[in-house]
Fold this protein.
Amino acid sequence: MRVVLVLADDPAVDDGGLRRSVEAALASAYHDVDVIDLHAGDFNPAMTAAGRRAYHSGEPLVEPDVADFGPRVSAAEALVFVYRASWTGMPPRLKGFVDRTFVPGVGFHLTDGKLQRGLVGVRRLTAIAIHDRSRSEVLRSRDYGRRILLRTMRLIVNRRCRRRYVALYDTRPERAAAARRRFSAKLDRVLVGL
């Protein structure tokens, strides 16, 4: 399966080897993995004025830092997002990636004012998140990252797309060991079973 792996977690922050674990699990299942690391290169999460003007044009990916993202996600059969959640849900780089990549002509098409799915080849959608807060705190704050990546994006991918969310909650040191073991076991099952 062609997998686009979007890494939005900061490599400078200790994630307990999450990046390596995800890449290793996907490789062990013999998936063809295309990695987009949002902290590598010159990716700017903010949409520029030129990008905003181009949003509704026939060529919305005019800025060089996102120009190759469209063809890469369009060729994907699975999208996997890895991130450390911020207080609003998604970190700014991931939110910028979503806003600037899943534009008209890539993520969707407007035909007679109606939304048409643009990523019909995407049959698997997985979000992998690390939350510093407890699960109950995250759910009380509505977990906008999960809602955007799994609920909103279901409108632009294949109708039968399977969606999964794997999260590690409450990463305080005194609770992290047991939670991390459960998280790792679930993560392996989900990624191998893409």
